[in-house]
Amino acid sequence: MAASVVEGGEDAFRKMFKFYKRRDPPPDFRDVADFRDYCNSLFTCLSRTSLNHEDAAQVGLKPIRDWRAFSLQGHPGFLFISNPFLRGSQAFWVRQCLKTYPQKPNVCNLDMHMSPSETQDIWDKSAYLLRQPKTLLEKLRWVTLGYHYNWGSKTYSADHHTAFPSELHALAFRITAACGFPGFSSEAAILNYYRSDSSLGIHVDESELDHSQPLLSLSFGQSAIFLLGGPHRQDPPTAMFMHSGDVMVMSGPSRLTYHAVPRILPAPLECASFLEPSGSASVLPDGSAVEPVTEEDWAVCSRYIQNSRVNVTVRQVLGLGQSFPETTPSSVFQSEKLPANGYRDGAAGGDNGKRKRSGSDSNPDKT
Ligand SMILES: O=C(O)CCC(=O)C(=O)O
Ligand SMILES: [Fe+2]
C-alpha cells in the first residue's frame, strides 16, 4: 500500500477509503487483514457458559468452543468472529433479509418514492423476474426494523416503531451474551443491501441513546473491505475483509469509532460454499428459529447474492429505564424531509442520496 495511505493526519481515513474504492488500477489488497488466515483466536474473552450448544444451534450458530474470535490491537472493545454459523444456516438468514424483512410494516428505501401498494410484495414481484435488470429486490438499498431510523433527522422515535423480528433478536441476544453483554435488547436494525459497486461512507453510529451496549454486525453474501478507524476522524483506520457469516461486535470505545465500507469484492469460493442451505431439516434442533429454505426460495436468494452483499446491524437504542426525549416542533419538521435512500453511493442503482452521520466530515464519495 502506498505510504501516504497509512500516514496519520486529517485525511488518513478518506485517503484509505479512496484507495480501496479505486477501480483503475485496482488497489493492492495485501495489507487487508483476513481473519480466515489467523489462528490465535481469543477463547478467553468469550463467555462460554452464557450460551449452551442447543441455544446456539437454534439460531444457526456453532458451539462457542468452535468460534474463532479476534480482538484488534489499538481497537479496544472490537471483536471479530470469523463465521460462527453452522454450515447451511446462513441460507436462512439470507432468505430472511431478502424475503421477510423487506415486508411491511418494516420500512425500506423504496417507500421513500413508491406507494405502499407498489412496495407491498417486493419478493413476489421480484422473484420470478430476477433474470431481468432492476427488480425491486435489486433496487433495495436498506430496510429498517424495530425503531425505524429516520435518515433525515438521524434519530429514532417512540412513534415510529414496529415489532422487532424475534428470531433476529434471539440471534443477536445469544451472540452478544457470548461476548460478555448479557441482556442485550434488539430494538432497531438497519439492513444494508450492497451491489458490487456500492460503498458506505465514513460515519459513526451514535444516534442510539444508549452506547453502553454493543452494536452487532452480521454479513452475508459477497465480501467487503471494512475500515475501522478510531474515535477521531483523523485516526488512520485498519482495513479488514468481511466475508459471508462474519460477525463484528463493536463495544466500549469501539462502539463510537469511525468506520466505512469502501468496496465490495467477490466472495472466496470457500465462503460462498458455506452459504448453501444444508438441504435437510433433520439437522435443526427442536424449537429452532432457523427453518429450512425451500429450493424455490434459494434459487432466488443465491442468484441475488451472487453479486450482492447484505449487512445487518442490530442496535439497542435505549438504556434500561430510558425513554425518548419529547419531540420539538422543529425536529418533527426535519423528520418529514426524508432522503430517498441511505448513506451509500449505490452508483449502479441511481440512488445517489448520501447519509452523513454523526456530524462527521463530508461524505468521502463526493470527492
Ligand atoms: O456494511 C457494513 O459492514 C457496515 C454497516 C454499517 O456500518 C452501518 O449500517 O452502520
Ligand atoms: Fe455503521
Explain how this protein is built:
With 367 residues, this protein is of the alpha+beta class. The protein has a single domain, classed as Alpha-ketoglutarate-dependent dioxygenase AlkB-like (Jelly Rolls). Helix content is 22%, strand content 17%. The protein has ten helices and twelve strands. The strands form two sheets. It has an eight-stranded antiparallel β-sheet with strand order 1-2-10-7-12-5-4-3. The protein has a four-stranded antiparallel β-sheet with strand order 6-11-8-9, covered by helices on one side. Helix 4 crosses helix 9. The two termini are 21 Å apart. The N terminus and C terminus are likely disordered. The structure holds 2-oxoglutaric acid and fe (ii) ion (FE2). The site of 2-oxoglutaric acid has 13 residues, from strand 5, strand 7, strand 8, strand 11 and strand 12. This is Nucleic acid dioxygenase ALKBH1. Keywords: Dioxygenase, DNA damage, DNA repair, Iron, Lyase, Metal-binding, Multifunctional enzyme, Nucleus, Oxidoreductase, RNA repair, Transcription, Transcription regulation, Translation regulation. It is found in: Nucleus. Its cofactor is Fe(2+). Monomer. Interacts with DNAJB6.
How many individual helices? 10
Overall mean confidence score, pLDDT: 84
CATH homologous superfamily identity: Alpha-ketoglutarate-dependent dioxygenase AlkB-like
The count of strands amounts to 12
Specify the helix fraction band.
10-25%
Strand content bin: 15-25%
CATH architectural arrangement: Sandwich
Main sheet strand line-up: 1-2-10-7-12-5-4-3
Distance between the termini: 21 Å
CATH domain class name: Mainly Beta
Structural class determined from secondary elements: alpha+beta
Biggest pleated sheet: 8 strands, antiparallel
Write the CATH fold name.
Jelly Rolls
How many domains make up the 3D coordinates?
1
In one word, what is the shape? globular
Hetero ligands? 2-oxoglutaric acid, fe (ii) ion
pLDDT < 50 stretches: 1-6, 330-367
